[in-house]
Amino acid sequence: MKIIKPPLLKEGDTIGILAPSGAMEDDTNLKRAITFFENRGYKVKLSDNVYSKERYLAGSDKERLHALHKMFADKSVNAIICLRGGYGAIRLINKIDYDLIRKNPKIFCGYSDITALNAMFLKRAGLVTYSGPMILSDFGQENLNEYTVSKFFETVCGGKFDYEGTFWGGNLATLVSLCGQDFIPDFEFTLFLEDLNEPPYKIDKMVTQLFNIEKIRKNTKAIAIGDFLGCENIDYIFEELDLPLIKNFPSSHSDRKATIPYGQM
Question: Exactly one of 194, 198, 251, 252 is catalytic; which is it?
């Protein structure tokens, strides 16, 4: 499948805020994020379900799927930044119209649970997305992390990234939740991983589960370890794989994170 790189973001463009996963408990950070982008010269459009809540999700599967399709189909929207992660993206992946995504390429950014959409958009639509900051956890914070903000705009506006190569991966637990799907790229990549609050044996189990897949073993040419917040030192788990290893890669659940082109050289 042809890999599609979305157009870069320009001042005056419209940023869509999409809620494909968990529900929002409080809109304080959302309002701050809207002000942040408007002050930088962008227009902001909210998906219909941003304020919806069904159990722990931002509305029903039908609502969240409709919002996702509508945001991609909207010609006035140039970039989509996810509201938050949590859980819910894998409930949508077999219902998404990937032809619609492929025909309407635009910047799509998120991490954590959004890793499922990053992986499937690349695999099924050929769309390069971005593993990076989101609305509630990043752009809506009272004290924004300068590194996170500068790297976001460097990447989505200038096409710059501090590392060479093709990066694929994201949140380890979310990637493992895709096992059983056809989700692994057909090209070689550096596998980047991050997670939080997991004991070493669970990280070991998840990494082993991934590397039990022949295609992962074949296509992974290096590993980049991001932050494993709240976890013990687990470097040995990756060192045992006997692959080139990048440590301190800026992929994280912390407030300091890079915006990583997902599947793009």
Answer: 194
